[in-house]
Amino acid sequence: MTDFEWQKVEPLIPKPKSNRGRKRKHSIRDILNAIFYIIRAGCAWRMLPHDLPPWKTVYHYFRLWRKDGTWAHINAALRTELREAEGRDPQPSAAILDSQSVKTTSTKGVRGYDAGKKVKGRKRHILVDTLGLLLMIVVHTADIQDRDGAKLVLEKAKSLFPRLRLIWADGGYAGQLIDWVMATCNWILEIVKRDPDIKGFQVLPRRWVVERTFGWLTHYRRLSKDYEVLVETSEAMVYAAATRMMLRRLDRSQAASP
């Protein structure tokens, strides 16, 4: 991380609850750099380079911040700042919903088979704003249908975004889910359909935003497959990758400003 990026993220890291215990040997900045290295390089925890803190220390903090919600908190704070830097309201009024099926490995953990995409593994169900910034993620088995997986995401999101009124999604979410979203969340679910007269690839309005976010996430090799035992760890990995992306984006905008 650059000095500017560290200044942005340092206030968001939880402080020790007491001064008791052994004095910290490694800086939090080095630990964050090691976590970002793991996600970007895609290597195992035990394969961290020796110039970074020990892998057990790094994993301890990653796991601690997963359990206490720090990764989601950092993501929300940086997203708010980035939206304001782009001249937007801190809270989104519209969002885009989609899922991505990814293969799992021989690591233990729940998984299922997505018959539509012929993938055995898990689904990453994400909700993003119109800038493509992550609002919410839920990881579940790939055999859960998109309409059912969407309910898991939206139920978690409904109390967190008071301005949200409109959600765009593809044809896989059509049907009874539209009425469920209005009745449960008081949001409008609008289905963006393909033009049947156009053959092959076509850029769909609004839908391309969430597809671009999935493209951003594929730059992080740890997310090329789901290597985690727990789905909560998989979600934390995505939040950490989104944090890294927003830090770099804030740094670039700061460098470009007069």
Topology, please?
Blueprint: H1 3-9, H2 28-41, H3 55-67, H4 70-85, E1 94-103, E2 112-114, E3 119-129, E4 134-141, H5 146-157, E5 166-169, H6 176-185, E6 188-191, H7 207-217, H8 231-256
Parallel strand pairs: 1-5, 5-6
Antiparallel strand pairs: 1-3, 2-3, 3-4
Helix pairs in contact: 1-8, 2-3, 2-8, 4-8, 5-6
Short note summarizing the structure:
With 258 residues, the chain is an alpha/beta fold. The protein has one domain: Ribonuclease H-like superfamily/Ribonuclease H (Nucleotidyltransferase, domain 5, 2-Layer Sandwich). It has helices at residues 3-9, 28-41, 55-67, 70-85, 146-157, 176-185, 207-217, 231-256; strands at residues 94-103, 112-114, 119-129, 134-141, 166-169, 188-191.
In words, what does this structure look like?
By secondary structure, the chain is of the alpha/beta class. The chain has a single domain (3-256), classed as 2-Layer Sandwich (Nucleotidyltransferase, domain 5). 42% of the residues lie in helices and 16% in strands. Strands 1, 2, 3, 4, 5 and 6 form a 6-stranded mixed sheet that branches. The two termini are 22 Å apart. The model has no long low-confidence stretch (mean pLDDT 91).
